[in-house]
């Protein structure tokens, strides 16, 4: 088998990386320190390290006072999750940030700490990251974000700027009453007034100067949320809020994301660390579609498929249709077919050496079939299935499948192999998800992965890809 056959995606960074950050999708994690569920799992640096090594570029940390209120820890507040020291998390990020990619890492802080502890965090961040930390010029408003190219091997901090000292007291009282409003994921806020000889304003200033991406929660009505201010910013919406406002404000959201950053996060009821459909965020231009990386399921496979693009660097350039401010894209309006993707599934191999003789069936060789689907804008979603090849470890299907695509730039090709079981419960036999825009045409040996997204050593499908323009 030649090397060309084994290469079915572009392996190097090939997108233009000189545009503002708002022009890219960023590989984004949610509660990046949790090892399991959202209510009782351990907090650790391990999932942070694992995420960075697979190319994740946005790490989320929840900052809380420790029990003595003299230091900062990371935990999911209002739950039974354990805590991990903020210092340990920052050290883990510093040491692993650029193993998988040299493009910038953004740390989003969910901040539940007082001004004295904010000052402590500012010093900690400065000491640990030093020259790696990107500090914008705070003397003037940032009218557009810097580019990934200009921020190579830099760390950016994104959080809400501290409020003025006179508003701090009122804010604390409000947050104690409206404890869940800020994050919508079960976290509860609990601030305590602290004071020392240094003014609250000086403490807040050091922390404020860390922030390169200003964040905020929605206030007022939808029109106010999506106003395009002089200074670019990050807005966070839960998955269900995005879904609701997109019904009537789809083009407003897309327009907002042409300059500003939109982060989407899982709804609070996902206590099992499950995920949602990321395409709803992407097709509205959302750059930071935040996922629980410790989970499983097909939505996480879509996330991994998207970020196999552009050499797996964690930044994928948004298609031009999402950046055109003369004709704002509406993902729910049907467009003409742009391309046809032809997938010719020839054969599969590798299961016999990967699994035991009786893994699928005690009495006979397996009966394999292939599910091939497109996930993308609503008009492009489709799934097709090959016939079942019975009693064969090296099945040959030789079947052609065609998909008409109205928005190929956002389309993901999802392939799954199952072994037919007479009980009706089909056995999983491998999967992969690939960005259509990155596929290399021709005959390719496509490697399949297990349920966790880890590649099998031997299992591959021999497939021919062809793309026809309309």
UniProtKB/TrEMBL annotation:
| Reactions the enzyme catalyzes | a 1,2-diacyl-sn-glycero-3-phospho-(1D-myo-inositol-4,5-bisphosphate) + H2O = 1D-myo-inositol 1,4,5-trisphosphate + a 1,2-diacyl-sn-glycerol + H(+)
Residue ranges for the region (Disordered) are 139-203
Q: Name one Pfam family in it.
A: C2
Give the way it sits in the membrane: Peripheral membrane protein
Species name: Pisum sativum
Start and end of every PI-PLC Y-box domain?
236-322
Its EC number is: 3.1.4.11
One BP annotation, GO: response to stress
Q: Name one GO molecular function term.
A: phosphatidylinositol-4,5-bisphosphate phospholipase C activity
Cofactors needed by this protein, per the record, are: Ca(2+)
The protein's UniProt keywords, in alphabetical order, are: Cell membrane, Hydrolase, Lipid degradation, Lipid metabolism, Membrane, Transducer
Bias (Acidic residues)? 175-184
Q: Residue spans with biased composition (Basic and acidic residues)? A: 185-194
Query: Which protein, by its recorded name, is this?
Result: Phosphoinositide phospholipase C
Recorded hits in SMART domains, A to Z, give: C2, PLCXc, PLCYc
Q: Where in the cell is it found?
A: Cell membrane
PANTHER family recorded for this chain?
PHOSPHOINOSITIDE PHOSPHOLIPASE C 1, PHOSPHOINOSITIDE-SPECIFIC PHOSPHOLIPASE C FAMILY PROTEIN
Q: Indicate whether Signal appears among the record's keywords.
A: no
Broad class of enzyme this protein falls into:
hydrolase
Q: In the UniProt record, does the keyword Cell membrane occur?
A: yes
Q: Domain C2 spans what residues?
A: 317-450
**Which is a Gene Ontology cellular component entry for this protein?**
plasma membrane
């Amino acid at each position: 088998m030649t090397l060309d056959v084994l290469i079915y995606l572009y392996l190097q960074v090939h997108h233009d990386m000189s545009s503002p950050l708002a022009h890219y999708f960023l590989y984004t994690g949610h509660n990046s320190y949790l090892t399991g569920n959202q209510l009782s799992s351990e907090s650790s640096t391990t999932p942070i390290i694992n995420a960075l090594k697979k190319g994740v570029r946005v790490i989320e940390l929840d900052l809380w006072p420790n029990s003595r209120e003299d230091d900062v820890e990371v935990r999911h507040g209002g739950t039974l999750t354990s805590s991990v020291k903020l210092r340990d998390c920052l050290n883990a990020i510093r040491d692993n940030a650029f193993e998988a990619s040299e493009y910038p890492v953004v740390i989003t802080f969910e901040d539940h700490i007082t001004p004295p502890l904010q000052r402590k965090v500012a010093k900690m961040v400065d000491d640990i990251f030093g020259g790696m930390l990107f500090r914008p010029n705070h003397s003037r408003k940032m009218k557009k974000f810097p580019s990934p190219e200009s921020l190579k091997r830099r760390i950016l901090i994104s959080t809400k700027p501290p409020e003025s000292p006179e508003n701090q007291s009122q804010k604390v009282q409000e947050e104690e009453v409206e404890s869940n409003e800020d994050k919508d994921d079960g976290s509860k806020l609990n601030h305590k007034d602290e004071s020392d000889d240094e003014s609250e304003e000086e403490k807040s200033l050091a922390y404020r100067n860390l922030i390169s991406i200003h964040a905020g929660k929605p206030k007022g009505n939808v029109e106010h949320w999506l106003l395009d201010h002089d200074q670019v910013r990050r807005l966070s919406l839960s998955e269900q809020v995005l879904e609701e406002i997109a019904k009537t404000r789809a083009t407003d959201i897309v327009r907002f994301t042409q300059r500003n950053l939109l982060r989407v996060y899982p709804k609070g009821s996902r206590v099992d660390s499950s995920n949602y459909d990321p395409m709803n965020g992407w097709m509205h231009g959302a750059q930071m579609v935040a996922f629980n990386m410790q989970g499983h399921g097909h939505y996480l496979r879509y996330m991994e498929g998207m970020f196999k693009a552009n050499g797996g660097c964690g930044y994928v350039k948004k298609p031009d249709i999402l950046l055109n401010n003369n004709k704002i894209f509406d993902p729910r309006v049907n467009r003409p077919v742009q391309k046809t993707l032809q997938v010719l599934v020839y054969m599969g191999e590798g299961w016999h050496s990967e699994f035991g003789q009786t893994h699928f069936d005690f009495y006979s060789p397996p009966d394999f079939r292939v599910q091939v689907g497109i996930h993308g804008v609503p008009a492009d979603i489709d799934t097709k299935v090959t016939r079942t090849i019975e009693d064969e470890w090296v099945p040959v299907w030789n079947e052609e499948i065609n998909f008409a695509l109205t928005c190929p730039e956002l389309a993901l090709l999802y392939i799954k192999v199952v072994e037919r079981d007479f009980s009706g419960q089909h056995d999983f036999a491998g999967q992969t998800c690939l960005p259509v825009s990155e596929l290399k045409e021709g005959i390719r040996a496509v490697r399949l992965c297990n349920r966790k997204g880890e590649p099998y050593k031997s299992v591959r499908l021999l497939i021919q890809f062809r793309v026809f323009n309309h």
